[in-house]
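Possible regression after last week's pipeline update?

I re-ran a chain I had predicted before the update to compare outputs. Posting the input and the new output here so someone can diff against the archived version. Not blocking, just want to make sure nothing changed silently.
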Amino acid sequence: MTSKTKPPLDKKFYSLRVDADELEFFKLHTGIMDEMALKDHIIAIQARAYEVCMASFVTLADNIVDILSQIYGFPCIRFFSFTKYLMGNHIVCISN
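New output (post-update):
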C-alpha cells in the first residue's frame, strides 16, 4: 500500500442503536428528526472528518504512527465509532 492510499469509507457500518439512546441523542442535538436525513447528515460529517484527517497525515507521513493511520484509516471515523453513546450508559454517569 502506498502512502497515498487510504481505506475507503463504507456506509454499511452506519447504525444508531435505539436501545442505547443514540438515535434520540442525535435527533435532539442536530434538530433533524427524519432518520434518513439524519443518516445523510452523519455520513457527510464522517466523510469530511475522514478527508481532513487523511489529508493531514498524507503530508506528515514520516513516522510509524502516521503510516499506520494511512493504512488503517482512522477506524473511529471509518466505523462510525464517534456516534456510539458510550458514556451515557456508563455506571459513573447513571444517576438515581
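Follow-up from reviewer: compared with the archived run. The chain has a mean pLDDT of 77. Marking as no regression found.
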